[in-house]
Amino acid sequence: MSRVKAALLAGAAMALCGVAPGAMAQEAITLKVGSVLPAKHYISVQLVDRFIADLEQRSNGAFRFESYPAGQLGKDVPATMSSGLADLGVVITGHYAAKFPLTSVGELPEGAGNACEGSAKMWTLTRPGGLLSALEFEPKGLRVLNANMLAPYVLFTRDKKVESLADVSGLKIWSSGPAAEKAIAEIGGVGIKVASTELYDSATRGTVDGAVFPYSGLAQYDLQPILKYAVDGVNFGSGVFFLTISEQTWNRLTEDQRAMMADAALSAQHAFCQWVEDGDKALRAETAAREGYTVTALEGAAKDEFVGRLRQSAENWARAMDGAGQPGSDVLKAYREAAAGN
């Protein structure tokens, strides 16, 4: 039998088994994935684990992964990839504000209506060739594989029902990041900085009058019995994070491996944002139906006043970045104009 005929027959046999000939021939590659999040955190389970399982299946085992959650490879995830200690990582850019100041544009209020819209807009800016990729990821030797946004943040209060901007004046409000802190100040609140582990006690004692986070934050911080008012209809910002790979590792991959990885990463992004949206809608309905809880949907002039102030806080962020020698206005403009569905 000729070599050509034998090769064709071998290829046909593999096709009948449902295995692509190229996948059988590829040498397995093992990649290390680093994250500061615990293994059971919903981002680890719903995004990272989903991505890994999908890519292992797509490649018929040519990709293998070793996962290192909870900062096992180091708390500075970008640095672990730059040094070669990790190949891939979950980069929560808000944790490294000095390294990714412009990427905090995704945390600003009134930026996106929901998780999928925000994820798509951030992907436009951070994917290879995007503005933020060029400004903040590529110089660090990182390639963004997918971009992810959490559900829009909501204002929750303890004793006071907020129906207008004036109702926020003087309230002591906790938030998880600097972008939300600036938004709180813009609407007349007083930002309170306490560790998230102390938030329950602070809210119970009245040291904190309210907090800004998604509906899931009520359960996350065990605050269902305490924060009984929610303000709906405006967006107080959100959190963003990225699945990234070091360029050094990316360059080691074949074209087929790169294509498989890119497809699996985008598939994970789309599935994760939909999971976030579905969960947020369910939690909002559950909160509104809970006895003793009030969800106020802002409308008309009251909503317009809130939106105007919150958008102004984004403009202030851009000016501050410009003043620090960073192209904040260009980034904010690009983010607002980015496609919301890709």
TrEMBL record:
It holds the Pfam family DctP. It is found in: Periplasm. Residues 1-25 form the signal peptide. Keywords: Periplasm, Signal. This is TRAP transporter substrate-binding protein DctP. The gene is dctP.
